[in-house]
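User: Hey, my collaborator sent me this sequence without any context and asked if I could get a structure. I don't really work with proteins. Can you help?
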Amino acid sequence: MKGLPEDRAIRFAQYIIENGATVRETAKEFGISKSTVHKDVTERLPIINNQLYRQVKAVLEKNKQERHIRGGQATKMKYAHGG
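Assistant: No problem. I've predicted the 3D structure and written it out in structure-token form, which is a compact way to encode the shape of the chain:
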């Protein structure tokens, strides 16, 4: 996804908020690296739109707190399918 970093940051933020998405899911959706998504929403977004940044930060914090649960579910699925 090309374009101005400021526009990208806003699009990523909107996607994360609307879908409760992780950085990884957002990167996959837009076909861009996780590093780019993370940099755009954590470094550029606060300068561009602080209110939007606060909303994204809340979603990302929630995802971070739930990370261990998703990891456990993935492991459970792996072994349930003979992995």
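In plain terms: The chain has four helices and no strands. You can pass these tokens on to your collaborator as they are.
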